[in-house]
Write a structure and sequence with these properties.
The complex is a heterodimer of chains A (about 300) and B (about 450). In chain A, strands 1-2 form a two-stranded antiparallel sheet. Chain A is about 60% helix and about 0% strand. Chain A has about 300 residues and is mainly α. Chain A has 14 helices and two strands. Chain A has one domain: Ammonium transporter fold (Orthogonal Bundle), CATH 1.10.3430. By secondary structure, chain B is an alpha/beta fold. Among the domains of chain B are: about 170 residues, NADH-ubiquinone oxidoreductase 51kDa subunit (Rossmann fold), CATH 3.40.50; about 70 residues, no CATH class. In chain B, the strands form four sheets. Chain B has a six-stranded mixed beta sheet with strand order 1-14-13-17-15-16. Chain B has a four-stranded antiparallel beta sheet with strand order 2-8-7-4, with no helix packed on it. Chain B has a four-stranded parallel beta sheet with strand order 11-10-9-12, with helices on both faces. In chain B, helix 1 crosses helix 4. Chain B is globular. The chains are: A mainly alpha (about 300), B alpha/beta (about 450). Chains A and B meet through helix 1 of A and strand 15, strand 16, helix 9, helix 12 and helix 13 of B.
Amino acid sequence: MNNEQLVVTSSPHVRDDTSVSQIMWSVVFALIPAMLAAVYYFKIQALGIILVSVLGAVITEFLFQKARGKRVTITDGSAVITGILLALTLPPTSPLWMVLVGSMVAIGLGKQVFGGLGYNPFNPALVGRAFLMAAYPVLMTSWTLDGQTTATPLNLMKMEGLGTDYWSLFIGHVGGSLGETSAFALLLGAAYLIYKGYINWRIPAGMLGTVFILTLILGEDPIFHLFAGGLILGAFFMATDMVTSPITKRGRWIFGIGAGLIVVIIRLWGGYPEGVMYSILLMNTTVPLLNRYTRPRSLGEVT
Amino acid sequence: MSVLTFKQGIHPEYNKELTRDIPFRKAKRPARVTIPLQQHIGAPCQPLVKKGDHVDLGQKIGDSDSFVSAPVHASVSGVVKEIKKVPTPVGKESLAIVIEADEEDTLAEGIAPKGNLEDLSPEEIRKIIREAGIVGMGGAMFPTHVKLSVPEEKEAEYFILNGAECEPYLTVDHRMMISRPEDIVFGLKVLMKAIGVEKGFIGIEDNKPEAISSMQEAVAGEEGIEVKVLETKYPQGGEKMLIKAILGREVPLGGLPIDVGVVVNNVTTAVAVADAIKKGMPLIERTITITGRGIKEPANLICRFGTAINDLIREAGGFAGKPGKVILGGPMTGFAQPTTDLPVVKGTSGILVLPRKEVEEFDPLPCIKCARCVDSCPQFLMPVQLANFTEHQMYDKLERYNVLNCIECGSCSYICPAKRPLMHYIKLGKAEIIARKRKAQ
């Protein structure tokens, strides 16, 4: 039988079910507890910020892809993640127009100008947040809790030397960005992603471990430093962004440890109370070098 | 018993239940066989017969003066009808001898038991194996006598028989370990004697408990031979993985197993060796798994070389629905064929038919640097980089990143969520590097 219709391709002929969009939507799913916690603490304000941020990100992605004549891939979930992550880094009092600007910058400058998913060197959500921090510093640092103006735990610590009790920090009943609050909700989602193998544990382990050990050595309260601010959010959901983190195991360790180091330096000696955003953006710049210099030893290779 | 393994690798769906419990049955004797003169890695054979000649079963019909080569034999008795070029399952054309079979199966002269193993010297064993046309039957088709010729400056310590059968779907080695365990052990003893070692292992993945107990029974009381249970993980049966799992040794970059004192062969090859010694029978047939959801009655068949794949598909009840892909070998490393008008050769371990609905055509997306390929490469390479270097023709870098250490297992393509054809690029890159090296010489 000469069957003209047989498909001929090179091996392998079977593929794993996991797809890019499946990974992306799993991350969205894992962020649901954190979003629920945000809405629980900050009510309708939080909901509005998340919705505007996601819509802004998705629409910007759509417009860029249309304009460049590329395949529209807004259903792959990656722009949705950027929208959610950006929202989680914003104060609950953020005006919605600012959220929209942030999400457009995140996708436009953070991702699409580089060629879209897979090509961006920096975490897009953090590019959006960095832009907003520079453009609207006052709006970006106005915090409320239960309707009252307040300060973040890191601010209280830095400016007034006041601590916050661990339980409030863990469940998230503190001032801060939408996703800086509940460590519990974030860890729930992170555990799911680690279980699925969609985020690599080495990066958060390196980052959190470094912050813990360094603050301990420097006479700070390490547990406070782990759970205050955006460290849990950043370590599990932003530093682990596949596109902008190293592809080697040793590279991931160095990336995580480096990010942890920068967090501690900024928190203890820098001008800002929090340093997670800059720590990750700075480490993003090292990724190509890390990949080059941490090439694994191939089986049988003598180095 | 502890389970041995290598690091990284993947866990594909094995689909062995389709044929795992089906004993071998002999396929019908074909009316006509087409026997390619190249069924091995190395120099092709020259025909020893001409059109119109009568040949007997097991008669040598092609041979070569080259060391790296293996003769071919008539798998039926009958008359040579034609000598012509035909396509072979690995994509190359080869001269082939077409024999019209008679009903007699008249045995060729000189086919007789080769006597006691104790009386045979390593040199004699290698000669018998070469004359029997035995090659690696796991699919590699490397002439076995070449593997058994250990260079003087190297020293063999162990022989490993590969019963891992890590390729999904295939069950020939599994069934062989159940049906002919004594011959496998005998074959191993012959192979051990040929390279002068006292210690032999049989590595089997732990998803084959029946084969493990069958082989354990067969090695009971045999000095120096041990069954090693391996984790079920692809590509456990790669020889470098086997050596790492069983002995903890790493074959050096650009080296061979013998560089760490090991020779590896497949369990089915060991049976061929046993037949060559015990009966004097050259390699004229093999076992084959014909399987997949595109086949009506999946089976494990014993068929003669040169049998048309079409005939075997018919023997297994024909296609179930429209076939999408016909693969010779397993789904990870096998070759998809444009036609089923091909002969079975020494390395054809399986015929896998995937129905149309299981054949996806992938539209690759951009790489998201997830590193799943890096994290699964059993050779600890960086497939994403290798594919990129090939794509951008950065051959110096490609070589520096040890592309030649790739064993072409396909784990990278399998695991890629963006469905990028990493393996395809890497194979192209390897071929280019090898071609450049050859030119430079």
